[in-house]
Amino acid sequence: MNLGNFSLRNLRQRDIAILAIVVTIALGLLWYFYMYRPTQDRISTLQSDIAQLETQIQRGEQARRNLPTLRAAVAQLEEDRRNFLAQLPKESDISGLIDQLRASASDSHVLVNSFSQGGGQDKVQDVRPIGFSVATTGTFGETMDFLGKLEELQRFTKIHQVGLNVKGNGSDNPDLNATFNFTVYVYTGKDPGGAAGQ
């Protein structure tokens, strides 16, 4: 076939129709693979992004609706914290607290054999834990009365361990050797009531 003598005038109508169909199919394929399909993929990606954004918007709207409640809860927690810290004894009041414990032991009629101070655990901002160990001797009722007085200090005292040993077996109400390990929390910061105005 000599393409040098090729002329559209020499083509028959059937050849022109076939050529037009082939060109149309080629253009259709090019349009499908280079325009339609990438556009559909992009639309799917955008729809997925829109769905994610709508979910995030819904969460944001819900968080915005909950914001006043959360702010009120935070303010209440701050107020509770200030009230709690205001009830803690100051570090300078620890000697009075020790006197109070000795008076409680005396009121309970237990004999204090030893009273020692150690390091405390549970570090908290503006609060210093001070560990104490008290060894006492007394009857069961007296020992439980003293333990009750220690537990009344629960707002700023945490009892870690109580040990009981019977002293002698010859009595219906023998003396108990008891040890109480507890931590007293004292406030070391500025006046907690002053934090309300800050």
List the helices and strands and how they pair.
Layout: H1 13-87, H2 94-107, E1 111-119, E2 127-138, H3 140-151, E3 157-167, E4 175-187
Antiparallel strand pairs: 1-2, 2-4, 3-4
What does this structure look like?
The chain is α+β, with helices and mostly antiparallel strands. The protein is 51% helix and 23% strand. It has helices spanning 13-87, 94-107, 140-151; strands spanning 111-119, 127-138, 157-167, 175-187. The chain starts with 12 loop residues before the first helix and ends in an 11-residue tail after the last strand. Mean pLDDT is 82; it is low at 194-198.
Features of the shown structure:
198 residues, alpha+beta, Alpha-Beta Plaits, 2 domains, 4-stranded antiparallel beta sheet, 4 strands, rod-shaped
- CATH topology of the largest domain: the name is Alpha-Beta Plaits
Overall mean pLDDT stands at 82
* Major β-sheet strand ordering: 1-2-4-3
Give me the CATH superfamily of the largest domain.
Ribosomal protein S6/Translation elongation factor EF1B
User: Rg, please?
Assistant: 42 Å
What is the share of helical residues?
A: 40-55%
Strand elements, count:
4
Largest sheet: 4 strands, antiparallel
Low-confidence parts, pLDDT < 50 over ≥5 residues? 194-198
**Any idea what the CATH architecture of the largest domain is?**
2-Layer Sandwich
Shape: rod-shaped
Count the domains: 2
**Percent range for β-strand residues:** 15-25%
The assigned structural class equals alpha+beta
How many separate helices? 3
Give me the strand/helix succession: HHEEHEE
CATH class division of the largest domain: Alpha Beta
Q: How far do the termini sit from each other?
A: 97 Å
